[in-house]
Amino acid sequence: MDFKKQIEAVMEPLAQDISALCQINSVEGEPQPGMPFGEGPAKALEAALALGERLGFRTENFDNYVGHIEMGEGEEMLGILGHVDVVPAGEGWDFDPWGGVIADGKIFGRGTLDDKGPLVTCLYAMKILKDMGVTLNKRVRIILGTNEETDWNCMAYYLNEVKPELPTIAFSPDSHFPVTYAEMGLLQYTLTREISEKLEIEGGNAFNSVPSKASVVLDGKYAADLEAAVAAYADPAMFAIEKADDKVILRATGVGAHAAYLWEGKNALTHMMAVLGQLPLEGELKEVVDFVNGHFGTCLYGENMGVACSDDDCGPLTLNLGKIVVEDGKLVLCCDSRIPVAFTVDSIEEAVKAKMEGTGYAYERVSTERPLYVPKDSELVQTLMEAYRTVTGDTESQPQSSGGATYSRTMDNCVAFGCLLPDQEDTMHQANECLELEHLKIWLEICLEAIYQLAK
Ligand SMILES: [Zn+2]
After folding, report:
1. Residue 85 catalytic?
2. Pick the catalytic residue: 148, 183, 349, 445?
3. Looking at the whole model, is its pTM more than 0.70?
4. What is the CATH number of domain 4-183+372-455?
5. I need a surface site. Which of 145, 248, 267, 337 has the fewest CB within 10 A?
């Protein structure tokens, strides 16, 4: 169908409504009565639902956890899953991150790409279909989460407490075009042992980040050995040595990265352990260094843990040692694995547990996300690819797999679709997050085509 004229007509209000929603700071805050994730996410949800109502749709708010905006009639339902919460602004902006400034053909603001811009775009696609009186056989429902950037507790509440009717097919416009049809399983766990000596070692700050910093305080007697070990290391520039009284401090600087793309980083902690492995250490520090080198090392794909595996869709399993902490007589290692869809989270967990037997380390599961897999030749993936190709003419980009996680994995028969275009700069979670109006128009065209094809 040709929607060109209708698209032109809504570009101005569409940009204004994205700007308005991005002016609400919806970073997670302290819970308040009736606002489970603080004031910001609740306000953004309210504003998005009000917009849905203004455009002529039915809306529903589930206790400020999740909201619906729905159009049309029909037994079946097409779901569109997104979220109105955002990550903190951070430093380095040239514009007010909460200003919604429209300038130089762009909308600037936190949330323009992730995920308010894509949601409002889908809403306007629905409006065009409604205004044109296009007959659809499915209802179309936008499902708005409010806690995606941290704990996904909104979806847990929605699925477990609200127990809503679920869409028969769905997509989540919270990633890249064209389609992400496979998302790896996620397993985060801790390995913990007792410590009775004084260990001053630290590194990293989260399961899902590659540590960019690590440090250890050693007895001064190791100073000469340490200097030699650093000098002989493959990348001596990662390290700085400081002497203080009878101590010597080793500081490592790596490159931070998200654990889903850990090959883009350089793990300061595991590289520091590799250097420590060259010293004639004693006692518990030696035990810890040997354990980490033996089970993690500087490899990225779980080789030393004995969990290396891979499949054609996702490539290799990844294992990130994200953090080490010594506290209250315990040493804790925080680990994050992304697991290819051909393998179960449980089978990897069993392998790690078995590997821990007799080591003195206790395994504990911290969190897990089931994988997403909708076959490439499924109707859903094919239809979305076709919509994308029809609008963009891009026949080269193929359906992708990812170690990242979107809401699409919370439901069956749902994939991530859009909205970042292959040639679009990715400023999600960064300073100066912005959306070009030229790209916005393409987004709208693709989403319109996709919703029409899936719901007709
Ligand atoms: Zn997002």
Report:
1. yes
2. 148
3. yes
4. 3.40.630.10
5. 248
